[in-house]
Design a protein that fits this description.
- It contains 3 helices and no strands.
- The protein is mostly helical.
- Helix 1 runs antiparallel to helix 2 and helix 1 crosses helix 3.
- The longest helix has 14 residues.
- The chain starts with a helix and ends in a 6-residue tail after the last helix.
Length: 108
Amino acid sequence: MVNALENKIYALVRRYDGVYLFKSRQPVLTPDTDLDLDLNFEEEEAEALMDEFFAVFDIDKNCFDIKNYYPEIPFSWNPIKKSAPVPVPKLTIGMLIESAKAGRWLYS
């Protein structure tokens, strides 16, 4: 069962998720939905969403760094020299929900 707080967060995420021509193509949002992998948010979109999230839910954003979830990835023009994969933690709607409930950002 989705409560009012969760509905508010889902509505916030929807505003940043873009426009879909067909309603059936609009992804179903769940606590496990990842902003990068599932919704394809660019860093700027995710950062704007998180800025509004912190303002709406009155949460100190000093503990949050967008670069943890969207790190700089080294690029090489050399096709032979491949960069090692960079492990990136998930940034999910569930993280927003749990942090809003706690009144502070719970993840590093």
